[in-house]
């Protein structure tokens, strides 16, 4: 399993709880950092509020978040050379085709619609963790 932090950008407390629980259940022990809005995510990634930056190996990004929307956060991640190669999985309730198209155009690595059902949501989080942290090859894992 790849080592490193997972950044979850999510404002729904139930989804945060379920994501934590699903990762623990699959024994994915990567540290999980939570940003509850887009501004906090940008600050964590680029140190804009004076805090140290984090360098996640995976970002799970909701589109419908306060302060700075998910598409804008994605745009900033993918246009900055320091963060552009971090895999970003859009994890959202939006089923709007325009959101899907914009996300991929900006550079999202995957787009997953969150199911309303808690059991299905947990399964999706488990599968995302297994794929991106175990199965997927990225530049960093090839250079180790």
Low-pLDDT runs: none
What's the arrangement of strands in the largest beta sheet? 2-1-3-4-5
Helix/strand/pairing category: alpha/beta
H/E topology pattern: EHEHEHEHEHH
Could you tell me the strand content as a percent range?
5-15%
Q: How large is the radius of gyration?
A: 14 Å
Estimate the global geometry from the Cα principal axes: globular
Report mean pLDDT, rounded to a whole number.
Answer: 89
Number of helices: 6
Report the biggest beta sheet as strand number plus sense, adding barrel if it closes: 5 strands, parallel
How far apart lie the N and C ends? 13 Å
Helix residue percentage: 40-55%
What's the total count of β strands?
5
Structural commentary:
The chain has 144 residues and is α/β, with parallel strands linked by helices. It is built from six helices and five strands; from the N terminus they run E-H-E-H-E-H-E-H-E-H-H. It has helices at residues 13-25, 38-46, 70-78, 97-106, 118-135, 139-142, and strands spanning 6-9, 32-35, 58-61, 88-92, 110-113. Strands 2-1-3-4-5 form a five-stranded parallel sheet, sandwiched between helices. Helix 1 (13-25) packs across helix 5, helix 2 packs parallel to helix 3 and helix 3 packs parallel to helix 4. The longest helix is centred in the last third of the chain and has 18 residues, at 118-135. The two termini are 13 Å apart. The model has no long low-confidence stretch (mean pLDDT 89).
